[in-house]
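From the shared-data thread, chain only:
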Amino acid sequence: MEISSISKSKQFSKYYLFLGSLGLGFFLWLFVISSEKYVVTMSIPLEVRNISAKKTLKEKVPSTIQARFSGTGHELLKAFIFKDFYSDYKLVMDLDRISEEYQFILNEYYERFPHKVILPNTWDIEFLEIVYPLEIMISLDEYLVKSLQVVPNIFIRPERGYIQVGGINIFPHTIDVAGPREIVDSIQWINTLPETLLTLNAPVHGNNLFISSPHHLIEYGDKTITYDIDIQKISERIISDIPVNITRVPEGLRIFVNPKTVSLTAIGGVSRIADIYPEDFFIYIDFEKEWSQKKQFYSPVIVMPNDLIEWQDLSPRSIELVVTRDSG
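Structure, as tokens:
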């Protein structure tokens, strides 16, 4: 039963394929050998020329126009098939005398300037009229170049036991963008296309990011940037002899700190931890905020480098302050 069904299906497929091929062949034969003239609508590229060096397009202009052409079946078929391969098949729009805005009525324009309808010499077809769009509004603006900061759009998740040390190093940090003043002035920075990096356990060097284009009329000095990310194994190290600072001390007072230094355990990337020093930390007590005559011991504030994970085991945890009047 199944074999019979499959056999019938194949027969119907061959039948429809035969009819389709026969119909298409007859149509092409009729179209090609006919000496009668036809009228068809085809797309034709639009080329904008002679924009002032200090000006640029403020709004996008259509890249193609729908137009009607007449000719014999053979010539129209040849044009339809090969039109994308001819650079001398186009409409030209000359903006030499346009300062800011001008509305082109296309059929009137090409009737007045027929030489701006460019067709290959080997084609025996005739341009008749524009079908769509019938009008194009040209808006020009001052051409502006501005250097903008690149903001990498990367989501990073290191593997468990690893950490990103420092920020994302990119090159170049800034790129030149150019285009209409109104648009360029509105752009404050340039984002990259999103990138996701998961389970990293080693540094990343020389990878590429692509610029995210906020507007089709903007040109970019660079469209790709390279980036480096430092990924290190998490480690810890005891840092000793970190000085304790007292801030916002009123005039006329002397503060004695006991002890003058503390130690703690810093946790971060193994290479970063190996290169850290006591002066990389800022440990302080805000005297104006914390001081009380009823209080002798104070917990200091710990400011650590941003690229560390955390600190632990501060020793000692409390600092004694002795306040006296300045005899001077």
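The chain has three domains: 14-133, 142-233, 236-325.
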